[in-house]
Amino acid sequence: MSPGRRKMLGAIVAVINVGIVGAIVGPVMGFVTSPMNQRGKKGWVKIARIEEIPDGRATEIRYSMRTKDGYHVVDREYSIYVRRDGEQVMCIDPACTHLGCRVEYQVDRDRFLCPCHGGVFDKHGGVVSGPPPKGLIRHLVKVEGGNILLHREV
Ligand code: FES
């Protein structure tokens, strides 16, 4: 076999080997890194129709979202307080900003109370008294076609 032909066959074999390695390593790396690619996924979730939310008070809404937990796809249940004042809608996270206990809405006082250490929040989630260092978290929300859509990062 001539040296030129030998070089050309060597180059062809090298290209084939690179293709084979790429065909094996590519899908394996995609599978291994897929949970990392799903982190920080954002999206809008329909949680209610606007007419389902009474005006002038907070209402607890439960909703589920399909999320990826490692290699598993699971439906997770969440709850949130939706407050409507006319056309204004806000979504208030029920987790207390002190140590994370779940706050309860009291209709008669139009406030959120934390049962763990007595934190009190006003109707918009601002701190009134107690140990919480800041107000309740408010999530992005929009109304489209009468649907209340909540922005979540999962
Ligand atoms: S966890 Fe709510 S006041 Fe402490």
| Broad structural category | alpha+beta
Cα Rg:
27 Å
Low-confidence stretches: none
Distinct ligands, ions and cofactors found in the model: FE2/S2 (inorganic) cluster
Helix content: 10-25%
Alpha plus pi helix count: 1
Mean pLDDT: 88
Widest sheet: strand order? Answer: 2-3-4-9
Q: Tell me, briefly, the overall form.
A: elongated
How would you sum up this structure, described in words?
The chain is an alpha+beta fold and 154 residues long. The chain has 1 helix and 11 strands; from the N terminus they run H-E-E-E-E-E-E-E-E-E-E-E. The protein has one helix spanning 3-38; strands at 42-49, 57-69, 72-85, 88-92, 104-106, 111-113, 120-121, 127-129, 138-139, 141-144, 147-153. The model has no long low-confidence stretch (mean pLDDT 88). The site of FE2/S2 (inorganic) cluster (FES) has 11 residues, from loops.
